[in-house]
Write a structure and sequence with these properties.
Layout: H1 3-10, H2 14-17, H3 25-28, H4 32-43, H5 52-72, H6 75-89, H7 104-118
Helix pairs in contact: 1-4, 4-5, 4-6, 5-7, 6-7
Membrane topology: Peripheral membrane protein
Main location: membrane
Subcellular location: Endomembrane system
Amino acid sequence: MHQLFRLVLGQRDLSRAGDLFSLDDSEIEDCLSQALEEIKVISCAPDYLTNDNDQAVVEICITRITTAIRETGSIERHGAALVSLWESCLEHNLQPQGKDEDTPHAKIASDITSCILQNYNRPP
């Protein structure tokens, strides 16, 4: 995994998460599936629902990953990892907790669904 992803995900370093957008898409494309697997571990942790820092780190990383997948056209390469993370979200409560307030797992599932559907008609 790219060193910056390892730092941000391994230490849940929100202060460095924005730096992921300074990396070239091709520089991180090889590690996107691995990063998705690490996000799955984080989002399945018992304290994830109450840990705002982890939720913010995950949200930023997913945005970076889905952007890189779109820009590099690598949905086929990382599709299995996307679906695995999406399926893990289905094991959690996806019902809104308040008015217009999605649960953290619903946000992840929504972002992944959007990424998959945006790439649906892309030729193999």
